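request received
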Amino acid sequence: MRDVILLIKIKLKMLLNGIRFASGGKWIKVTILSLIGASFTWGLYVLFYRILVYLKGVPLLGPFLIVRLISMIFLVFFVMLVFSNIITAFSTIYFSSDLNLLLLTPLSFRSVFIFKFFETMFYSNWMVLFFLLPVLAAYANINSALFTFYLWIFVALFPYFVICTSIGILLSVVLMRLFPSKKTRDIFLVLGIVLGASTYLLVRFLQPEKLVNPDVMMGVMQYLVTVKTPMTKFAPSFWITQSIVSMVKYNLGRSFFYLGILSVSAFLISLVTVLIAQKIYYTGWAGAQEGGKKKKPKVYNSKHRIKESRFPFRFSGPMRALLAKDIKTFFRETSQWSQLLLLGTLIIVYLYNIYKLPLPYFYLKSIISFLNIGVAGFVLASVALRFVFPAVSLEKDNFWIIRASPISVKKFLWEKFWISLIPLLLLAGCLIVFSNILLEVDRFFMILSCATVAILTVGLTALGTGMGAIFPRFNVENIAQIESSMGGMFYMVFSLFYVAVILVLEALPVRMYFFYKLSGKAFFNIKILVILGLIFLVVNVAVVFIPMVLGIRKIKNLEI
Amino acid sequence: MLQIINLTKTFGSLKAIDNLNLDIPEGEIFGFLGPNGAGKTTTIKIMCGLLKPTEGKVLIDGYDIQKEPEKAKQIIGLIPDHPFIYPKLTGREFLRFIGSLYRIPLKEQEEKIPELFNMFELNQWSDDLIESYSHGMQQKLVMSGVLLHNPKVIFLDEPMVGLDPKSARLVKEIFFNLSKRGVTIFMSTHTLEIAEKMCHRIGIIQTGKVIALGSKETLQENISPDKNLEDIFLELTGGTEYAELLKYL
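response:
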């Protein structure tokens, strides 16, 4: 255990050094993220407080429904946490870069494993903790709980998290023993994304907005009462719910009883996990480090050559090489292409939301159709943050190849622009055309919104590519660090501002058109239209060229 | 072929290269030696256009690497000590990529790529992803990429790191032959034996300044006729002072 404490101390030291040596930019970033996190937590607290107050007011069933709701939250999180622990465990226990050093030292496998257990537990559960705290605080507040209840939350959550982590790690250890390969991790990563996307779709299709309707709400409550879940009594989610609910009522005996069950189970399952890992962890880890089986040399046929020489499109040799390289690496990186699944889900939900919008009047429909351009712009900006902004940074340590080659920086960056623009235009087209069809807009509006979104796409792509080059992050382990960097934040602020400016510039001409449609009289002021058109042109040219030129300049002067 | 004129590079208050001047003719193998942190990799990076000089310039076959980077880069090849290459491409795809970047005609690529795979004994892995390659295999792949576009000047930064003895011998032979055909080779290395055997001229750099320059024989004549290159190097760079300390270990 001394070794485990030493390893945890080192980890904490690294964390503290991160704070000690943080730059001014990092502090700004942390402050902004903290503010966003605090607002989210507060919003969650207010939302749950209202829900719980509402449920408490339901005659006879109120307290029962609240317990059911909390129990369901813990059950859902239990499943999610087990899955998240499986995926995290692959990275922390098998593919973490520090393992090569740790397993080279005379530390026992058990010590390293226990240390990695805590690491996995921290990475997998901290976000859920931030979600659960406002929910449970709201619950405490409506019951006027004592201060000790808040401490009790932490005491009860610890064994709950230990159980989730133990099950997740145990499954990953067994899986890696049976299939020791990086592919196992990739498969679970994709499964995780599919699970997340499916849950999102399911929740959306259940139409939670209907719960606002009291008649529907009553029906749901009746359903909750009648549903029998006897198995729940054997699940950690039930134990933690009972322990917390009993504590709020100050029923200490019952609360301690369920905490006892939770703690003993946590101890036993973590012990079993460590004991099993002691037997099979090393074999799985060693197997995971090995490459795939050596294959016979392939015959390089002429068909392949023809396909490559024509693909993609009619760009020059170096440009085509860069395009082909980017496309291949994108589709071979599971963490990259799997994001397309989330993107697909996003489009479905976006279109479904528009389909479900109640728009009985022409006026309302017109406003929504116009605002739809802005929403589409916002979606495209977010997608560009994920796929376009990191394009330069994703060259990572390989960037020396580009810089040492005779390809110009200008060509390199414009290649990044083109390769992002084409799929983004397709996405933009799908979003705006289908949403316009669902909104039943007229021809003028269809043309206007399609043209605007196409221009926005060009602007956002250039902004993303250029700013990605101005703020490159080559030394990152995952793409999330690029998106959440200072540059990523600047990009998001600029892109949203750009979308807003375009909407403002179009607002007046659109208003003129709607007046014309409603009254039949022409209100067009040519002078204003020309001025707005010129500003529109200048803004778009600036958004396309300024970030690209600055990005090219930055890369030219970049020292690697 | 390769001219370094009044080259200076500073990082903040640190002068990594201090008014460096070198003139390396066509077909010469030039060994660039120096202790850690002397400025060897910085010099190579500036010559390849990966770093900007604070002062001075580098001319490659008459092209200034800062003013005409594309023309200069078309005729150079770099083999770094840690060859990071796209892990999600196969070896063959990587060479095709390099071939296209340097505008090598497709037909020529089709002919040369299998030859290079054969020469470096990478045939078996040519269609595997690079992420499954060992360090030595990646090094050989980068060398193949450099040889694919027939550069006039090759920069080598610790070229033998990670290579097995057979490959190391092969690489030495290749560079000897290239030098005979007029290719200039600028090699930074810590392996003094390699420098002694391979290089026509040697430059020793310390704290950014060249402190000795010439052929092995010239260095011996000027510094100490009865000493080998290792002794000369240690004498110049101060390595002999450790001998006393080592007695206690």
